[in-house]
Amino acid sequence: MRQRRWGARRGGRRGARPRPSSAHAFVLRGARAPSQRCPPQSLSRLVGGFQRGAVPKASRKMEQQQEPQAVATSMGGGGKKASATARIGGSIISGFCEIGIFHPVDTVAKRLMSHRGAVAAEGGSGVSLSTNQIIFREAANEPLMKKWGSLFPGVGFGLAYKILQRTYKFGGQLYVRDAVAYRFGDSFTAAFGDKNGKAMMHAFAGSMIGVGEVALLPLDVLKIKAQTNPESLKGRGVFNIFAEEGFALYRGAGWTAARNAPGSFALFGGAAVARNAMGLKEGQTPTWVQSFVSSVAGATASISVASPMDVVKTRIQNRDFNDPRSGSAIVTDLLRHEGPGAFFKGLAPKLAVVGPKLVFSFAVAQKMIAMIDDRLQK
């Protein structure tokens, strides 16, 4: 009876629905299928919701779809989350490009760090000759192109290591950060505030990822030995080395973890702090300049903090396989014969290249991840 009177008062057929206003019609079209009926009770609840400031579910879904999400690389940014295939593929391409361009500079830094004794000799010409011999070794007196070619020892090990490292580090840090935010996000926010809490979560996740890099240590050991002590690998195949040395390839794992934990903490944390200082919000797409500045800030902090441990790690890894000295003995010898300044050997060339290196690798990874993801979705 009530339904019949409602239709009769409006002069329409039995059960006819009133013509809503344009605003209500838009919401109804977004929230309901055209074939669904809207009885007056639902319309009254909808109008009451507008008066109380409530937002329909359809509008909330539209707003959530428009909100930016964190980009798939660990440096942050705006845009959609990429698939795992795109993330792995982009990281692999980034590793290929990085090792091809920056492997020679890494060789120079490793050889300077491995050199025992003073790098500079007395006299202007002596300095150049000494540095030339340390860096280029047997190719010190060869033409320029042969000198350049001598800086690519261990490129096969380096390629395998860099691809696995970039895939693990770039892709894995974001997953760890999400897990930390899910489990301990409120604790970080309460302790450090909103912005600083997010930066600390990035740093903490990076530190955990850095410790896990120890699993890739054998490839890094073989790369460094090929760069600084190639005689120890002569006449030996890769499988032969793994079979004979076994867990000896993990020598210095503790020092490596001690180097990676603060280094990765400073890398991701420094980059996050720099983004906060530039006013970038979580999920906001940075410009190329902002990406460069945040990468340089994080990389400089990381290399500076990890430099002492990096020198010890390199000395452990480049020695002969039958050298029984422990990391503590190497530190003692280093302080006794070379002084505390030896902990920062090779820092200048690493700082000179690490900013562009990280900017390059992150930029390539982000672009490749986005391009591969777009291809997969077509």
UniProtKB/TrEMBL annotation:
Region (Disordered): 1-23, 54-80
GO cellular component: membrane; mitochondrion
PROSITE patterns linked: SOLCAR (PS50920)
Compartment annotation: Membrane
GO molecular function: guanine nucleotide transmembrane transporter activity
Primary localisation category: membrane
Topology class, membrane: Multi-pass membrane protein
Listed InterPro entries: MCP_dom_sf, MCP_transmembrane, Mito_GTP/GDP_Carrier
Entry keyword Membrane: yes
Keyword vocabulary terms for this entry: Membrane, Transmembrane, Transport
Highest taxon in the source lineage: Eukaryota
Residue ranges with Basic residues bias: 1-17
Solcar repeats by residue range: 289-371
Family: Belongs to the mitochondrial carrier (TC 2.A.29) family.
Protein name: Mitochondrial carrier protein
